[in-house]
Amino acid sequence: MTDSGFPYLSVLTLAPLVGAVVVACIPRAKAQVAKTVALVWSLAVLAFSIVMYVDFQVGDHAPRFQFVESYPWIPTWDARFTFAADGIALVMLLLIAVLVPVVILASWHDVDETQRSASTYFALLLAFEFTMIGVFAAADVFLFYVFFEVMLIPMYFIIGSFGGVRRQYAAVKFFLYSLVGGLFMLAAVIGLWVLGGHTFDFTKLADAASGLDTNTARWLFLGFFIAFAIKAPFFPFHTWLPDAGGAAPVGAAALLVGVMDKVGTFGILRYCLPLFPEASRWFAPAALVLAVIGIIYAALLAVGQNDLKRLVSYTSIAHFGFIGIGIFAFTTQAGTGSVLYMVNHGLATGLLFLVVGMFIARRGSALVSDFGGAGKLLPVLAGIMLFAGLASLALPGTAPFVSEFLVLIGTFTVHKAYAVIATAGIILAAAYVLWMIQRTTQGDLNPALTELPAMRRDITLREKVVVAPLVLLLLLLGFYPKPVTDVINPAVQATMQDVGTTDPAPTAVANGKVGP
To answer: CA–CA separation, 345 vs 321, rounded Å?
Structure first.
């Protein structure tokens, strides 16, 4: 059953899975064919997602959830294959569709075809895309949980089989952290099913959850929140990300940090807040404290990193602190800023990871101390790294500035102290980004770089195609974010209504005094 003329979400979800099977069946000897098929398939998914985005209705009278589909699955549990997308899910689906073909093209030469199967690697990337789309499109709580757990499998094998020196340790740590978080959510899902009328339907559960007693609702909220906080990751559940991001292949790390960890913040917005509004308000002060600590703590750790991939991973933890305070400020401005931050962070950090990967591939090392003055040999790549770094620290004119500004101004209206402390993270962001740029591309040229032929090859045509769409989107959304905010706003407003909060009344200045 579908409420639209075409089953957009089921097709969008299944298409990468079919592509993964096709690519996996291509013989290992035909690696170029496997890469080409994977790239073309991901571009077809992107084109289809753009069509869906254009068809999404925006306006006061547009339904909150669109492209709704529901098919029987497990009748005994009232579990169904139910898909639906609101504005929050839609922009995340489009982000996935944009990043995957970029990552596939960026990873073109990342697999040593004499030792490992390129077909397997690119099939795993498409399989990972399938699970990511599924988790954002699912509107049945049990279906969401299944995708939430299944998405660990392709990334585990990507890290464990194709990662760096510490790949086995990082893969196991990543898997165990996420699995433990998933067990907390499973307990909460079972409790919600028992107390919510033996159904997994999101709409029915939202109605049933309103009748739960206070303590029960808080415990169920906590089960979901811990799972999402680990996935995001929020402080102090963050320690798996630097290891996973540092060990994963660069393209996979871009997807890991650019999209996968957004499942945590998306889950809080989609499930924690609407299902447990009172518990969300009760836990909000603690969540805000953890978010602010994460901003400062991760930024300080980023400053001291010598590994480029771990440095970028720590910057992401700091950025998720901003997303967290925007969610739990419970204002429309801050909420819209948080969702927009999820999109912009995926673009900016994805670009930064990919450019860092281009430097690492040429140098054969991810250590900052092994570079120095690289911009003299690679001026264009150094310029793109500078742009990606400035976008990551939310320079005005780039997309992250808009979302960070919305988060801070929306938070300041209700929690001035948290907003002021969080601004210290902006100063620290300038420190760790600019110091990374200075130590890597500026200063005296490291003589060892001149002995490497690869360091004399500036950006290639393939790499230009990789970075161009991300640079253009970061600039476009930096100056004109309206196409995205128009889609996000209604969903955020509906979520705030579910929580039972209203935006503070505006203030006016009269006779030198500020008042309502």
So the answer is: 12
Whether the CB-CB separation of 78 and 200 falls below 8 Å is answered with yes
pLDDT 10s digits, 322-370 = 999 999 999 999 999 999 999 999 999 999 999 999 989 888 888 888 8
Cβ(68)–Cβ(84) under 8 Å?
yes
Residue that is written with structure tokens 């140098």 in the block: 363
331 three-state secondary structure: coil
- Tally the C-alpha atoms within 13 A of residue 178's C-alpha that lie toward its C-beta: 27
| Stretch among 35-39, 235-239, 256-260 having the lowest mean pLDDT | 235-239
Q: Around Cβ 488, how many Cβ atoms within 10 Å?
A: 24
End-to-end CA distance of the chain: 50
138 CB-contact burial (10 Å; exposed 0-12 / middle 13-18 / buried 19+): buried
- β-strands 513-515, 66-74 pairing: unpaired
Distances (CA, A) of 267 to 10, 206, 412: 20, 14, 24
Residues present in the chain in total? 516
Write the single-letter amino acid at 117: S
Q: What are the backbone angles phi and psi of residue 178, rounded to the nearest 5°?
A: -65, -35
What is residue 66's DSSP assignment? E
Q: Which residue has the tokens 């601004």?
A: 423
Distance between CA atoms of residues 280 and 211, nearest Å = 15
Gap between the Cα atoms of 335 and 392, Å rounded: 20
Judged by DSSP in three states, 306 sits in coil
**Contact (Cβ atoms closer than 8 angstroms) between residue 392 and residue 479:** no
| Coil vs helix vs strand at 287 | helix
Indicate the SS3 state at residue 302.
helix
Residues 489-508 have pLDDT tens digits of 999 999 988 887 777 766 55
Residues contacting 504, CB < 8 A, separation 6+: 331, 413, 414
DSSP for 70-88 reads EEEEEGGGTEEEEEEE-HH
Distance (Å, whole) CA 382 – CA 128: 30
Question: In 3D, which of 383, 402, 384, 235 has the Cα closest to residue 316?
Answer: 235
Neighbours of 396 (CB within 10 A): 11
CA distance 393 to 397: 12
The residue-averaged pLDDT of 311-328 equals 90
Q: Is the pLDDT of residue 509 over 50?
A: no
- Gap between the Cα atoms of 290 and 271, Å rounded: 20
Radius of gyration of the chain from its Cα atoms, rounded to whole angstroms: 22
Q: Which of 388, 368, 391 is nearest to 459 (CA)?
A: 388
Euclidean distance between CA atoms 252 and 127, whole angstroms? 12
Q: Could you give the CA distance from residue 415 to residue 266 in angstroms, rounded to a whole number?
A: 22
Please name which of 138, 127, 170, 130 lies closest in space to residue 70, comparing C-alpha atoms.
138
Cα separation, 389 vs 409, in Å, equals: 23
Kind and range of the H or E run holding 509: strand 508-510
